Amino acid sequence: MKRLYSLSLAALCVLTSTITAQTTQIAGFPERELELKSVSAEYTEAHNVTNDAVPAAEAAPASLDGKSFVTVYQDSKNKYNGFFTVEQGEGNNIVLKNFAEGYDVNATYDVATGKITIPTNVVIGTHSTYGDITMYALDFAASNYNRNPIVGTVDGDKVVFNYGVYGLVEEGGFIVMGNVTATEANAKITYTMKPQQGDPVTFENPLLITKTSDTAIKVVGLSGILYGAYYEVPFAINASANTATLPLGTVIDNRYSYNRPYYLGGFNPVGQVDDLEMKVITSEATSLLTADKVGYVYANNMQYSGYIFHDVKIDVNFNIFTGEVTGDGDGDEDTDTPTVDGISYQLYRDNATATVTGCLATLTTLDIPSEINVSGNVYKVNAVKTQAFMNNKTITSVSIPASIAIVETDAFRNMSNLKALYIADMAAWCAIEFANGNANPIYNVFPTSTSRWGKVYVKNTALTTLDIPEGVKSIGRAFYGFKSLTSVKLPSTLETIGDQAFANCTSLAEIEIPASVQSMGSVFFSCTGLKKVTFQGGVKEFTGMTFYGCKALESVNLSEGVEKIGKMVFSSCAALTTISIPSTVTMVDMMAFDGCSGLKEIKSYATVPPTAAVMAFDGVDVTIPVYVPANSVDAYKAADEWKNFTNYQALTVSAIDDIEADNNAVVEYYTIQGVRVDNPSNGLYIKKQGNKVSKVVVK
Q1: Collapsing DSSP states into helix, strand and coil, what is residue 53?
Q2: Which band of pLDDT confidence, cut at 50, 70 and 90, is reported for residue 256?
Q3: Sign of the torsion formed by the C-alpha atoms of 97, 100, 106 and 111
Q4: pTM of the full predicted structure?
Q5: Which of 1-5, 24-28, 265-269, 487-491 has the lowest mean pLDDT?
Q6: Which residues, other chains included, contact 1 with Cβ-Cβ below 8 Å and sequence gap of 6+?
Q7: What is the predicted pLDDT for the residue at 674?
Q8: What is the CATH architecture assignment of 339-474+483-496?
Q9: What is the pLDDT of residue 1?
Q10: Distance CA 500, CA 522 (A)
Q11: Type and span of the H or E element at 634
């Protein structure tokens, strides 16, 4: 739900630790804050579905007039709750107030069948920016919409709709409500907002409250005040004290476009935002929860910002202390968005997995478990959601279990007080799919200032060196920003090193790449301390930016078998003085050696000049000697980019000169650059057997 229809007189304020010094200004009269949706639905012709095709209800009420319902639905990414109230319209018509994300819709109700029928292909409202909003029926699973009527079957206190709602404006989809269900409200919240000018305004929203134990209730619908993110909010109830308490930091809403969770807070005697404690008055069959002043707030660095509600009342149509426990966690009563030990999750029941979505604002140690138990059901924790902890300033320690497989974009971005990361299992960590660098918490452990660097622990041991275990075949963005890392030993089983796997590892000075690795992207991007890289052979392609910004790199051997040096692979490697391009290279891509201002010589063993893209050697002194096969000098002088060099010389000796021969009959292979290779792949090599040395082509 992306609207602010109930905030037309919102009192916007900054809630600081000294509440008496706060300033309050009145927000304007904002229109419903709906945005164009990223989901794309295709129009299909109506299927002539009639009411008869929808099963009749078994227990339909005689009238819906005056009833309020809490809705649950989803868009392309998230789950929401809304609400609507039924009013009698003209004739036999009814009006579902606020049904379509705050917009009213007309309908009819057949008491005999319990069916609500909502006509489509009708304009339900006009937005000041996007114009008329036309409502259609949404087939959410098929991602299409049509002109069929939307039919809801009322059975007892439940309503299930055959279609969702698709609100279309000229620019695209504007309202997306899929898998819509509704439950009759059994409570309502009333609150007053006091503008600086004018009279106070009172608002009312329906709620759904379930008693989950003798000491707890859960509330659905509090988020309907603002953004409508679906949360089942747990209150602790105390019959002897006549209170209902909600700890500050319990998420009740989320503005997903800003990754901004909201909380309800009370105010302590010195005016600071604190746990919300509501007084409870009960009768035999009702309850009234009250609070003089409530903050609807989000954490903003070291303070809270948000809205102040006055004279808050929650009317409940049962006694919360003596009423029956009905929300025992079975079936549909079980929450899809639980908070367990301060960590919030989204549950996926079809495969019994859970995604971490955030945490309580007060949590300082984030210890993510490998699994959680919710109402007797076990869920494997296997992912962290986009921006789950972005801008969190309170967490100082993060522990990641071996069960995590995916960490989405910016999940740990800007966690400025993170001091320690605990990794449960190295092999599992290497396999995690980090969507970007800021998805990896390591990056936040090492801020710009070295005096504020934290530590990385593997199985509770602080490490600055890594020994990746044998058996690991792939490494993703596992060590992005590990600035204190000084050395790495890679396993012989390694096949793939992903983009930015060791990017910004500024203390890493030397590394050896096993022959099993065949392709590399931006693996060592901006490793400013890296001086030497040794390849054992095997790599066929550097796809791009492999050593970009490695300004200290002095030595790198490119093995025979390399076919492509991609874009900006050695860009800004100013300390590199010599480079030998194997005979197998056919492509040197754009800006591959851009900014290699320290180069004193280039050796290219390819008899056919590798295709060189624009600016392949930009910034390289064109007067340095370029050694190429004697019979290829003229070809290089005529080739694009190569022709810019003015000092070509013929290769006359091999780089094998410093390899000593002996009388041993064991066969040894070396690259043209003189590096021994245990298992040579395709290409030109030096073969040494005893005191006999010769050049051979391995196919």
Answers
A1: helix
A2: confident
A3: negative
A4: 0.63
A5: 24-28
A6: 80, 81, 82, 101, 102, 223, 224, 227, 228, 229
A7: 62
A8: Alpha-Beta Horseshoe (3.80)
A9: 35
A10: 5
A11: helix 633-638
